[in-house]
Amino acid sequence: MNLRSAVKAIIPKSLFRKIEPAGHLMEAVLFNTLSGGSPAKDMQVIGVTGTNGKTTTCFLIHKMLTEAGYNAGLMTTVAYGVGNDIRPQVQHMTNVPVPELIKRLKRMKKRGADWLVLEVTSHALAQYRVWSIPFSVAAMTNVTHEHLDYHGTFKNYLSAKRKLFRLADNNDHGLRIGVINGDDPSAKAFASDIAVPIIYGVKHGDIKAKNVQTTPEGSRFTAKGPEEEYDIVCNLPGSFNVYNALAAVSVGRAIGLDKKQIEQGISALRSVEGRMTKVEAGQDFSVIVDFAHTPDSFEKLFRDIKPMVKGKLIAMFGSAGRRDEAKRVVQGELAGKYCDEVVITEEDDRDIDGTEIMNQIAGGAEKAGKTRDKNLFLVHNREEAIKFTLSRAKKGDTVLLLGKGHEKTIERADGEHPWDEVALATKILRDET
């Protein structure tokens, strides 16, 4: 147990949340002072925040930059590195603690990174963990229900996200540009925080997606800007990835990439680990691993997938312990509404009773009309749940394994255990075929 964990164990949660940001800020000041200033001070930093789509949008922007010949760094929930040398992010957090962040920035600077694409969470912003980063561009994907266990209210959550735009606006040496999803209800609030707001969207925006064609393999659309149109091919399935690609187009245009660089950069990204990752082991049904774990991501994913499914749509998922409890019943209700069968399992229970979590989710699924042991099943051990779920699938069905995505560990009461959902599902399928 580290010092921060020990302090958390003895100080009431409400009090710790009040003093925790000050601790992170002191760390940031100390480590940056010892480093002679932020290691990122000579980089152009693009920060991406939002509830869903942050990681994919970061990967799309990073791919555009690297394909265009820039030496660009990347830090996301999934991976970090410079150029094409990208390594997995093992920690169960997007923005690592300040000391580790400084180390990674130093390594990137040593390797000559001139750009950095940084995924930024509400926790990191509320706790000043990215206080010293000189953001030049800020991007917002969307803001929906999430992390209210920490922030308390949606207003506080939104305020934390908006800090990224204020940081970018206060950077006199940056571009002071904000790229904002105009179809999100919070768009006007973000636009008021930045000198140069650029709005994108399908319905509203300076840059709009037109003639959208979606398939199980991805999408094609025209990104229509004030002066130019971009012919976009996105190899990531789901209508939500139209928004992510559109955000990347808007960033590319804002930082001066030309039409060819934007179009080729986006089409060059073939996949993002744990984001709509297909598992192929010779089976006659579809298996997809995705990180979706919020009500908004569930709604969008189920709504997109359902019309394409020939047989049954089967979803397996859980909900993390010591995280937002209010979303559990909503997750269950959405799965019950869209899916033919629902399997509920563990997802980082930590020290919380997994059965209680599963029953909370099941309550939502039952509200949507599902019946236990008929089309609603509770299997606590996640490996056993994957085996059970895959055994239910027949020819033409689609199985969604949700919530873990890229993560390499699963957190239980006795600590972290190695985990790889794609590898495990592949092995189970191969053993059964």
Polypeptide structure, described:
The chain has 433 residues and is α/β, with parallel strands linked by helices. It folds into two domains: 261 residues, Mur-like, catalytic domain (UDP-N-acetylmuramoyl-L-alanine:D-glutamate ligase), CATH 3.40.1190.10; 156 residues, Protein-Tyrosine Phosphatase, Chain A, CATH 3.90.190.20. The protein is built from 15 helices and 19 strands. The chain has an eleven-stranded mixed β-sheet, sandwiched between helices. It has a six-stranded mixed β-sheet with strand order 12-13-17-14-15-16, sandwiched between helices. A two-stranded antiparallel sheet has the order 18-19. A hairpin with a 3-residue loop joins strand 2 and strand 3. Helix 3 crosses helix 9, helix 3 packs across helix 10 and helix 11 packs parallel to helix 12. The longest helix is centred in the first third of the chain and has 22 residues. The radius of gyration is 21 Å and the shape is globular. The model has no long low-confidence stretch (mean pLDDT 88).
3D shape: globular
Q: Note the gap between the termini.
A: 43 Å
Q: Into which percentage range does the β-strand content fall?
A: 15-25%
- What is the tally of helical segments? 15
CATH superfamily of the largest domain: Mur-like, catalytic domain
Q: How are the strands of the biggest sheet laid out side by side?
A: 4-3-2-5-1-6-7-8-9-10-11
CATH architecture of the largest domain: 3-Layer(aba) Sandwich
CATH class of the largest domain: Alpha Beta
Tally of individual domains:
2
Q: How much helical structure, as a percent, in the residues?
A: 25-40%
Number of strands: 19
Structural class, from helix and strand content? alpha/beta
* Unreliable stretches: none
Q: Rg, please? A: 21 Å
Q: Give the oligomeric state.
A: single chain
